[in-house]
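My hope is that you will study the record closing this message with an eye to the fold:
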Amino acid sequence: MGWLDARALQSKVSHEFKVTVHRMCIWHLVATLSKWQEVYDCYHELFPKDVREASRELRKELERRGVRDFRNTVVGHILDKKTKKPMTKADIDKKLSKIFNGDYEGFLLGVNTPGGNDFPKTVVSIVEQIGDRLTQEHSITPEELFPWKHHDKVGV
């Protein structure tokens, strides 16, 4: 679990805390991937042609793995909408296993491979390529993409 395993923290950090932080991080990642599915569903026709196939394949893979279902039944709501009951740990673990496709490390590397996000091998590479191509094809400036970065700092 990385920084949570640091020797200096061992006496201060319980296993339960590590599990809680880890699940929180995974749930945020899954929620973000679900949002990407929504962006694709609403705007894929605007994507430049050279990124559409990779985008479509990513969308299908996220659906196959149950990302949106996990977001809707575990991350976004207290109760499962179908059963009207809270999800059990076993149910959550089963859904996570489906998302990870039985390979947790492989799943994380499929999202982001530090030093190796080659298009279209990772989620990060696909999203970056879409952004780059949209800015090229539509002459979008950094100021238009990130207006909060370019405001005058007067009065701050």
About this structure: The two ends are 38 Å apart (CA to CA). Helices lie at 15-43, 49-64, 67-75, 89-100, 104-111, 123-138, 142-145. The chain has seven helices and no strands. The mean pLDDT is 88.
